[in-house]
Specification:
CATH superfamily of the largest domain: Type I PLP-dependent aspartate aminotransferase-like (Major domain)
Largest sheet: 7 strands, mixed
Strand order of the largest sheet: 4-10-9-8-7-5-6
Structural class: alpha/beta
CATH topology of the largest domain: Aspartate Aminotransferase, domain 2
Helix content: 25-40%
Number of helices: 15
Order of helices and strands: HEEEHHEHEHHEHEHEHEEHHHEEHHEEH
Radius of gyration: 21 Å
CATH architecture of the largest domain: 3-Layer(aba) Sandwich
Strand content: 5-15%
Bound molecules: 4'-deoxy-4'-aminopyridoxal-5'-phosphate
């Protein structure tokens, strides 16, 4: 057993902020992060000797729960055959076939190593294909940390209060046009003015980086329409929602056909993986078939493909997502009832096994402005209360929560009981 404070102090000596990704540092909630020794099922085991019921799931990938025995065994087997070849493997073809089967809008797919690479490459491809420079994104949506996309980018950037990072040249950011999420009128107005210069719209089909904000009815359909009318491509960033809100992702849940889709998280089963794919005529513009360059030393890595393929196999069993969605609904109803009983104003949002908690009196949370109007200080108190109770939530009021298949009725009940005690202390 190790003292967390000592571990964090040591980490900070040689790692900026002691972390390899900013939101892990607990900056927005205060305090010091847990150091994790191992994880199993719905639980993280920290170096403080305690077990924590986990609703972060490594920020989305661990939809089967941590260290699923079948995934671990498959990766162990693959490890013995070699860690990386830098040459084609049948595993990559199997992965591509699987992705195209599960997500019918994808005719061809290219594997990369992170969600950031996926969105960055998809944007380059959209620009190369259309011959246009401008892109449209939405306030509070995060698409990774590529320069052109680090504008009004949600979660980590929101948490730190630096939505526009120094180091991003103004000349790069000037082609990124940002509009309010769920505001179709703003999109139509922009396209009416300069639609012919816009290469693509990139959107989180369920916003998961400003907490969790589902699309309003008609919003995604409207984006599809305006792209078609102006010859722009629609990119659904399903890094978070892909294989989570439904087996076929948000595009299956809402019935939207994008031109390109970006994937990450679950597709790697916990290994560092991303992917982008879509229409064959667009994907054929990629090198080596076409002129748009994109590459990666470790892309399609055999261990990552193995973890991803096994995960996709296990979540494709009939009823998997329906059960996960029910579990999530059950959790949210429990939390709402506990909040009401304690006189705490709480609103929740849900899309499949993705959820958002908002401390607000507002009747609903539908926009970036609604999210920003919720009480971040109450969230901080709730977060730390729950952590003391042994429940690990994302350490920011701007992150979505995730439920895994390892969260059973006992885990939900324990979470609601912890929330009852925490709300009582907050009220
Ligand atoms: N797009 C979305 C919607 C994401 O949620 C994230 C990461 N949370 C990314 C892109 C970037 O992925 P990565 O962190 O793997 O680079």
């Amino acid at each position: 057993m190790n003292d967390t404070h000592t571990s964090f102090a040591r980490a900070q000596q040689h790692i900026p902020g002691g972390v390899n990704s900013p939101v892990r540092a607990f900056k927005s909630v205060g305090g010091e992060p847990l150091f994790i020794e191992r994880a199993q099922g719905a639980y993280l085991y920290a170096t403080d000797g305690r077990a924590y019921l986990d609703y972060v799931g490594s920020w989305g990938p661990m939809i089967l729960g941590h260290a699923h025995p079948d995934v671990v065994a498959a990766v162990q087997e693959a490890t013995a055959r070699g860690l990386s070849f830098g040459a084609p493997t049948e595993l990559e073809t199997q992965m591509a076939e699987r992705v195209c089967e599960l997500v019918p809008s994808i005719d061809m797919v290219r594997m990369v190593n992170s969600g950031t690479e996926a969105t960055m490459s998809a944007i380059r491809l959209a620009r190369g294909f259309t011959g246009r420079d401008k892109i449209v994104k939405f306030e509070g949506c995060y698409h990774g940390h590529a320069d052109a996309l680090l504008v009004k980018a949600g979660s980590g950037a929101l948490t730190l209060g630096v939505p526009d990072s120094p180091g991003v040249p103004a000349a790069v950011a000037e082609h990124t046009l940002t509009l309010p999420y769920n505001d179709l009128q703003a999109v139509n107005d922009l396209f009416a003015r300069i639609g012919g210069q816009i290469a693509c719209i990139i959107v989180e089909p369920v916003a998961g980086n400003m907490n969790c904000v589902p699309p309003e009815p008609g919003f995604l359909e409207g984006l599809r329409r305006v792209c078609d009318a102006h010859g722009a491509l629609l990119i659904l960033d399903e890094v978070m929602t892909g294989f989570r809100v439904a087996l076929g992702g948000a595009q299956a849940l809402y019935g939207i056909t994008p031109d390109l889709t970006t994937l990450g998280k679950i597709i790697g089963g916990g290994m560092p993986v991303g992917a982008f794919g879509g229409r064959r005529d667009v994907m054929e513009h990629l090198a080596p078939l076409g002129p748009v360059y994109q590459a990666g030393t470790l892309s399609g890595n055999p261990l990552a493909m193995t973890a991803g393929l096994k995960t996709l196999e296990l979540i494709a069993v009939p009823g998997f997502h329906e059960r996960l969605t029910e579990t999530t609904t059950h959790l949210l109803r429990g939390l709402e009832n506990a909040a009401t009983a304690a006189g705490v104003a709480l609103r929740t949002n849900q899309a499949g096994a993705m959820f958002g908690l908002f401390f607000t009196d507002a009747p609903a949370v539908r926009s970036f402005a609604d999210v920003m109007a919720s009480d971040a200080d109450r969230f901080r108190r709730f977060f730390h209360g729950m952590l003391d109770e042994g429940v690990n939530l994302a350490p920011s009021a701007f992150e979505a929560g995730f439920v895994s298949a390892a969260h059973g009725p006992a885990e939900i009940e324990a979470t609601v009981a912890a929330a009852q005690r925490t709300f009582a202390a907050m009220a």
